[in-house]
Amino acid sequence: MKRMEKEVRIYIRIQKSRKEAWKKICSEKQISLTSLIIHSVENRILDDERRKVLNFIEEQDNIFVKIETNINQVARYVNTMKAITSSEVDYFNRQLNHIIELKKEQNGIFKKIYSMIGK
Fold this sequence. Notes:
The protein is an all-alpha fold. It is 76% helix and 0% strand. It is built from four helices and no strands. α3 (47-81) runs antiparallel to α4. The longest helix has 35 residues, at 47-81.
């Protein structure tokens, strides 16, 4: 991605206390004052929020990897034992259906997140 050169400088007059408050926000969020102002004016997601979203997505992916591992362990157990009770099958199917619903919900959240990030 090509970085755009800064061509124009804008001067604004604000109270010193307000500037210090903005700088404190920037420090807490680990973003620049320019980024804070531009993203706020353009109603875009801030860089720190973008990082949090990406971390959230990564954590969600890790959770589903763990679930998939557990499913594989159950399948190995069933294959080794060559039997599974109907109540165990029912429980397993309920868990799978719950996972499917969670995955649908997660995908809906991801669509909203990606649309926000794209702004």
